[in-house]
Design brief:
Blueprint (H helix, E strand, L loop, with lengths): L1 H32 L7 E10 L2 E5 L5 E6 L11 E6 L4 E7 L5 E5 L5 E6 L3 E6 L9 H12 L3 E5 L7 H10 L1 H5 L4 E3 L8 H8 L3 E5 L6 H8 L3 H12 L10 E4 L5 E4 L13 H7 L24 H7 L5 H11 L5
Parallel strand pairs: 3-5, 8-9, 8-11, 9-10, 11-13
Antiparallel strand pairs: 1-2, 1-4, 2-3, 4-5, 6-7, 12-13
Helix pairs in contact: 2-8
This protein binds guanosine-5'-triphosphate, magnesium ion and zinc ion.
Length: about 325
């Protein structure tokens, strides 16, 4: 008991010290926001964003805790920026460079907020446990199609499945494989299938997305033996503590490529999407779009519906069409 209390006390003290240090750093950076005028500018990469604080990496791989000027937009993990050094550990971001892609996610109010930028691959992580939830996979795939970032479906925790269960799990994904989405099986715990995953990550900036608990951070751990050291370095540079899973965080892979860990979701709504975008987000619908008798066909009950006909012809799976209908009820456009 006594020992436990002491530990809690120590923890509190450490937290207080960290908080003070954070405040001092913030103060210094705020003061310097006004006074970096002539400091040399550098190009850098946002590795993590936490509130208003950014972890910026310079071209040598050194991390700086930065704040950002108000007017430049909302830099996020993966963004390329221009920044000015304030002191040996901190700086100010002064410009956001153009993005190749951006992945957004609705916040609690339903407004889309950027989560990561300049990604070239969306790795959707599924697992037998927690079981895949409804049409979350379809939502991610629609997102990938809309932002034009190719997806990869990664089934993690295959160590939990016996042969037959494994087969059944993959069978659920057959409709996705048929329409061209790559599916791979891995186990972060048993270090299984990691080479195939690494092959697909090489040369890409990939983000791991999926339900909370499917093992995104565990995969990062398995792929990055130096991960612990890296998070330590990150927390030191940003003063954000060791647990960075609450924010998207970018890691460099030893084999080449970058991997972004992102906080898990339970579900999200594609509120910002138009009906047309949703239709195009189901890639196998595309050859049939515009061919229904009615231009505003909902593909449910209308006569001469090309989508319904394609389903009857096995060109569109009943499951995907059902998920489309469920999703079309959630969008505003
Ligand atoms: N059996 C098994 N368990 C795993 C595997 N990968 C991860 N886990 C376990 O699953 C749990 C969740 O793993 P995390 O890596 O924290 O999951 P996450 O997706 O990062 O979760 P959030 O950060 O909440 O989004 C942990 O208890 C892991 O030990 C795996 O391949 N096999
Ligand atoms: Mg995590
Ligand atoms: Zn139709």
């Amino acid at each position: 008991m006594a020992k436990r209390r002491l530990t809690d006390q120590q923890k509190g003290r450490i937290q207080a010290i960290q908080e003070k240090r954070r405040q001092r750093l913030d103060q210094k950076v705020s003061q310097s926001l006004a006074s970096t005028g002539d400091n040399p500018t550098h190009e850098g990469r946002i590795i993590i964003r936490h509130g208003a604080t950014l972890g910026v990496m310079d071209h040598l791989g050194k991390l700086y805790r930065c704040q950002t000027r108000q007017h430049i937009g909302h830099p996020v993990c993966g963004d390329r920026v221009i920044w000015q050094q304030v002191d040996e550990k901190s700086g100010v971001v002064t410009a956001l460079l153009p993005r190749k892609s951006v992945l957004s996610r609705p916040d609690y109010s339903g407004r889309h907020k950027p989560l990561a930028a300049n990604i070239s691959q969306l790795v959707i992580v599924l697992a037998p446990k927690p079981a895949p939830s409804g049409y979350l996979l379809d939502q991610y795939l629609v997102t990938a199609e809309t932002i034009q970032v190719p997806p990869l479906i990664a089934v993690n925790k295959i160590d939990l499945l016996e042969d037959e269960e494994e087969m059944r799990f993959y069978q659920q994904l057959d409709p996705y494989k048929i329409i061209g989405y790559p599916v791979i099986g891995v186990s972060a715990k048993a270090a299984h299938g990691l080479d195939a995953l690494i092959d697909r990550l090489k040369g890409e900036t990939s983000i791991l997305v999926g339900q909370s608990g499917v093992g995104k951070s565990s995969l990062i751990n398995a792929l990055l033996p130096a991960h612990e050291a890296e998070t330590g370095r990150l927390s030191e540079a940003t003063g954000l503590g060791r647990h960075t899973t609450s924010a998207a965080t970018c890691y460099a892979l030893p084999q080449g490529g970058e991997l972004i860990d992102s906080p898990g979701v339970r579900s999200f709504r594609l509120t910002d999407l138009s009906r047309q975008e949703l239709e195009r987000g189901f890639r196998e619908f595309r050859p049939f779009l515009g061919q229904c008798r009615f231009h505003n066909c909902t593909h449910t009950h209308e006569p001469e519906c090309a989508i319904q006909a394609a389903m009857a012809n096995d060109d569109i799976s009943a499951l995907r069409l059902e998920n489309f209908h469920r999703l079309s009820q959630t969008i505003s456009g």
